[in-house]
Design a protein that fits this description.
It contains 13 helices and 36 strands. By secondary structure, it is α+β, with helices and mostly antiparallel strands.
């Protein structure tokens, strides 16, 4: 692969590819940088070259798995595709694990202000200062419906109209249980069932003391080592009053004082009818008119506890997921301990936020106090657009003038009550789940009052709690300070 400096008119593409032997289905995965996507490059592996000489180039096919913005990103991804298990596969031509490139790792192609190309270290201070910028700044790699690939301006009307779309849109790099990697559609049945997982699943990016980044399995001993830290733990992107962006620690005094605010403060992500997304102010005229909808409009959170996964799906497709053992909600790993958080407010800044207990004193010293600021937002809905959102009271009239009205849009699917007399249980379920519950011995309807026979209510004034227990447990609770009955409103 050539490392010569490209001319001003050339574009550099970084990608991970897969070359397949059409005769025996053996394959090779590698990373490539080029100014010509159709350069015919198949790979540089020793065994691969021998195979090409034996079978002929015409019996090999290269497919691009994923594009990247830099060579470093491509090498990082290659290390996820080419694993030790993959190398042990008899059908794999690779001899080494991925991410081992050294010739140009840490370098990148950039442009100066005159548009001239340079090949420099990615840590070059001129990049940070803005003197040099990415060679594809403002550009996007896209494809048309026929699969042709182009590099065009990000604001090109063809992208906005949906005629051209991102090269990786609706695509996902995945791995199977043996570590074999491939790129598939996001709605592939094997991915939805959990048979295939994202190549990044179960991994984390860590940073050594020199600032070098590594993606490793979460059970890697280096994750818990004092010599490494998580890539962005305790950090977030903030901006100053001029709009300049910085990655700062959440405890930074400039963040606490309000000098720096979250990068997307006052903005929300919206989508158009083609699925293109925009980060805009909620007062944008296209948002108020309904031309753009909230990114998650028409979607609901569902979870699968067996697979340990959560996702958002379209409401029109929810019944399909509920019939496959998914249910409403967000999956929470019971093994992960979430530190307790408290609300603090700053009346001068008219802001409130949730912080961890170890951050509390820093905020109190900067003039914050415990509590929340009463909400100045209201829910509005537009039944014609089938959309609902929360807006500030100052913006309410603008929305009402555009046909919106006060209230929350009810998008929840109808539910029905089922009971299980043997288990002495009753619950509301989605109608799409009825047959599944009936097959497990449940039946339609509610438990009668005698369904709770043998149980009584008890209360504990000190704990401010009610509880229903079986009569056999009554004496045990009475001995521990509980009494028969339910707490009244004036006792709570």
């Amino acid at each position: 692969m050539s490392t010569s400096v490209p001319t001003k008119t050339q574009k550099i593409y970084y990608f991970v590819y897969r070359t397949t032997n059409l005769i025996n289905n053996k394959f090779y995965i590698g990373k490539h940088s080029t100014t010509n996507i159709d350069d015919g490059y198949l790979g540089s592996g020793k065994i691969l070259k021998l195979a090409i000489n034996k079978h002929g180039r015409e019996n090999f096919k290269r497919e691009i798995l994923e594009f990247f913005d830099s060579e470093r990103e491509a090498y990082d991804a290659e290390s996820l595709y080419i694993t030790e298990d993959m190398i042990s596969d008899n059908n794999c031509y690779n001899l080494l694990e991925g991410g081992n490139g050294v010739v140009s790792l840490g370098k990148t192609h950039v442009l100066d202000k005159e548009g001239n190309y340079h090949y420099v270290l990615s840590t070059d201070p001129r990049i940070k200062s803005g003197e040099l910028s990415g060679n594809r700044l403002g550009k996007a790699i896209v494809r048309d419906i026929e699969g042709n690939i182009f590099s065009i301006d990000k604001n090109d009307p063809k992208i906005i109209s949906g005629e051209l779309f991102s090269i990786n849109k609706y695509k996902l790099a995945v791995k199977d249980k043996n570590g074999k990697c491939s790129q598939i559609s996001v709605d592939d049945p094997k991915y939805l069932s959990g048979e295939l997982k994202s190549v990044a699943s179960g991994t984390v990016i860590i940073v050594d003391k020199k600032g070098n980044k590594l993606r490793v399995p979460m059970d890697d001993p280096r994750v818990k080592s004092e010599d490494f830290t998580y890539n962005n733990i305790g950090k977030a992107i903030y901006k100053d009053k001029n709009g300049n962006a910085y990655s700062l620690n959440t405890k930074d005094t400039r963040v606490i004082s309000g000098e720096f605010i979250p990068i997307n403060s006052g903005k929300t992500t919206y989508k158009d009818k083609y699925g293109n997304t925009y980060c805009l102010s909620i007062t944008d005229s296209r948002v108020i008119s309904g031309e753009l909808l909230a990114i998650n409009s028409g979607k609901r959170h569902i979870k699968n506890n067996k697979l340990g996964k959560s996702k958002m799906v379209l409401e029109c497709d929810i019944h399909k997921w509920l019939s496959k053992s998914w249910e409403f909600g967000i999956y929470v790993d019971s093994n992960i301990q979430v530190p307790p958080r408290k609300w603090v407010k700053n009346l001068k800044m008219s802001k409130h936020k949730k912080i961890t207990e170890d951050q509390l004193q820093d905020y109190l010293d900067k003039g914050w106090e415990l509590g929340m600021i009463p909400s100045n937002h209201v829910y509005i809905k537009n039944t014609k657009l089938n959309n609902g959102m929360k807006v500030h009271k100052n913006q309410l009239q603008d929305y009402l003038d555009k046909g919106w009205e006060l209230g929350r849009l009810n998008t929840r699917p109808p539910k029905i009550g089922v009971k299980n007399i043997k288990l002495n249980k009753f619950k509301f379920i989605n109608k799409a789940q009825i047959q599944e519950y009936i097959d497990e011995g449940w039946e339609l309807g509610r438990l009668n009052s005698n369904g709770f026979s043998g149980k009584i209510f008890i209360k504990n004034l000190e704990l401010n709690k009610n509880k229903m227990i079986h009569k056999d447990q009554q004496q045990e609770y009475l001995d521990n300070g509980w009494v028969v009955g339910r707490l009244k409103n004036n006792e709570k």
